[in-house]
Amino acid sequence: TAQAEPVIADQQAPAKWHYLDGAEAEQMVSAAQEEAAALGRNVAIIFGTERCPDTRALLQWLDQPEIAQALKPSFDFILVETGPARDRNLALARKFGVTHIEGTPTLLILSGRDGSLLNSKAISKLRTAARQSSRQRMAYFRAFAPQHSQ
Predict the structure, then answer these.
(1) What percentage of the chain has pLDDT greater than the value 70?
(2) 32-69 burial by CB neighbour count: b if 16+ within 10 A, else e?
(3) Distance CA 23, CA 145 (A)
(4) What is the reported pTM?
(5) Cα–Cα distance between 31 and 92 in angstroms, integer?
(6) What is the pLDDT of residues 21-47, one digit of tens each?
(7) Could you give the CA distance from residue 76 to residue 133 in angstroms, rounded to a whole number?
(8) Who contacts 149 (Cβ-Cβ below 8 Å, separation ≥6)?
(9) Is the CB of residue 60 less than 8 Å from the CB of residue 130?
(10) How far apart are CA 25 and CA 79, in angstroms?
(11) Average pLDDT in the 88-92 region?
(12) What is residue 131's DSSP assignment?
């Protein structure tokens, strides 16, 4: 099967994305959890840094209209700064049982129902996002999308 060409990320994150830090990050995660619970979605916390080409590639992919439309019913996204040493906002990751950020982007996908970490064995799966196809990325998110009753 043919795979799509990897996304080559620009040097800057797309303008819509704002890296949250400290208390602001914690507040936004709490607000996203409340909203996700009310709307039947999950929360995807992206731990990244602007210098990371894989984080930039993931954000640019998420900004594509067809991708945003496909994922919006299932996820609320939060972008959290890790800093070059990947130790900023580690207290937030620890709240969900993650003791260190090995690389970026690292994703924590939280259940909208109970706030539990759904992807504990796959938090680093998108660390090579710049080299992954759109199909691979979409499969990752679909694996952790909430199951809505029909």
Answers:
(1) 88
(2) bbeebbeeebbbbbbbbbbebbbbbbbbbbbeeeebee
(3) 27
(4) 0.88
(5) 14
(6) 999 999 999 999 999 999 999 999 999
(7) 22
(8) none
(9) no
(10) 8
(11) 95
(12) G
